[in-house]
Amino acid sequence: MTSAPVPSQRGAEVGRRIGVGLMYGLWRPRVLGAWKVPAAGPVILAVNHSHNIDGPMVMGVAPRPTHFLIKKEAFVGPLDPFLTGIGQLKVDRATADRGAISQALGVLADGGVLGIFPEGTRGEGDFAALRAGLAYFAVRSGAPIVPVAVLGSAERPSRLIKALPPLRSRVDVVFGDPFEAGDGSGRRTRAALDAATERIRKQLTSHLENARRLTGR
């Protein structure tokens, strides 16, 4: 597998601080269960994805610096060096991007936090369709998965900027209990990853349902 430099933890911490300022300055995040994120060691945050601000929101409110896998199309113009500088990972979704895979595994091997949108792209944000990438990273690294539900980001488009939620509106971010994706065997066969993906889907869907009951959204 192609070797790629592991993104900077310091850069991700800078990104977290920028995210804190932006998210709390523009909206009213309500963060629940952040204490459930393990304080040390490798962790994967599995985030539902229905709006452009979901990644920056989680990056800003998570208790630890997070390296997100982000589609390469977002790395345009000045955003390319900026996103790279704050420790985010560029991934080509059209192929098995070995460089991005190597970087993501490197983050986890270094005891860092990897952020993934397991649905692969923006959608209903209901975890209905998962790609196998999340299972692969979890089984390969042994890192626990923490489900994260972002609710309210896509409820009403802003009258001022249609691509964003209304300014000062409330966005709920609910962290769930960490869980292991594998069956303990360490196998990475297609059947083992398919089974892990189904276990993950059930856990994430259950967390999302609980988060909606908890927040009333």
UniProtKB/TrEMBL annotation:
Entry GO MF terms: acyltransferase activity
Keywords, in A-Z order: Acyltransferase, Transferase
Signal peptide: none
SUPFAM superfamilies: Glycerol-3-phosphate (1)-acyltransferase
Alphabetized InterPro entries for the sequence: Plipid/glycerol_acylTrfase
One Pfam short name: Acyltransferase
Domain Phospholipid/glycerol acyltransferase residue range list: 43-153
Name of this chain's protein: 1-acyl-sn-glycerol-3-phosphate acyltransferase
Organism field: Streptomyces achromogenes
